């Protein structure tokens, strides 16, 4: 699949690190380091604008290394970039640790996964089909 992209940063375009990678790393664009304090959130710019084909979205997800080592996550994970959005991709990072975290220009702050989706048509009914689970909610399957 080919996706049109405008890169207003001075970093290389996102790329897959291995032949089987699902996600592309997104890099921070900032003139000076950004300090993310404990429990603080901030939108980190990437300098990237994309035009996805209809029927696709870009999912913005945390990087596992930042989450495991530093408690840094994407707040609205996964964030969604819709096919008709043309603005700059921003990443809402949150610091879930007890320590300040420094974000520097070019730091890999999130990953982007391109995914196909379908839009649903809802049909209002009076009742739903019966299932073994029924209305059992959180934890109802015993696992």
Which secondary structure elements does this structure contain, and how are they paired or packed?
Layout: E1 4-7, E2 23-27, E3 34-36, E4 41-45, E5 48-51, E6 56-61, H1 64-70, E7 72-74, E8 79-81, E9 90-95, E10 101-103, E11 108-116
Antiparallel strand pairs: 1-5, 2-11, 3-10, 4-9, 6-8, 6-11, 7-9
Record keyword descriptors for this entry.
36% strand, Deoxyuridine 5'-Triphosphate Nucleotidohydrolase, Chain A, 143 residues, single chain, 3-stranded antiparallel sheet, mainly beta, 11 strands
Briefly characterize the structure.
This protein has 143 residues and is mainly beta. Helix content is 5%, strand content 36%. Strands 2-11-6-8 form a four-stranded antiparallel β-sheet, with no helix packed on it.
Q: How would you describe what is shown here?
A:
The chain has a four-stranded antiparallel beta sheet with strand order 2-11-6-8, with no helix packed on it. The chain has a domain at 24-116: Deoxyuridine 5'-Triphosphate Nucleotidohydrolase, Chain A (Distorted Sandwich), CATH 2.70.40.10. The protein starts with a strand and ends in a 27-residue tail after the last strand. The protein is 5% helix and 36% strand. It contains one helix and eleven strands. The protein has 143 residues and is mostly beta strands. The model has no long low-confidence stretch (mean pLDDT 95). The longest helix has 7 residues, at 64-70. The chain has one helix at residues 64-70, and strands spanning 4-7, 23-27, 34-36, 41-45, 48-51, 56-61, 72-74, 79-81, 90-95, 101-103, 108-116.
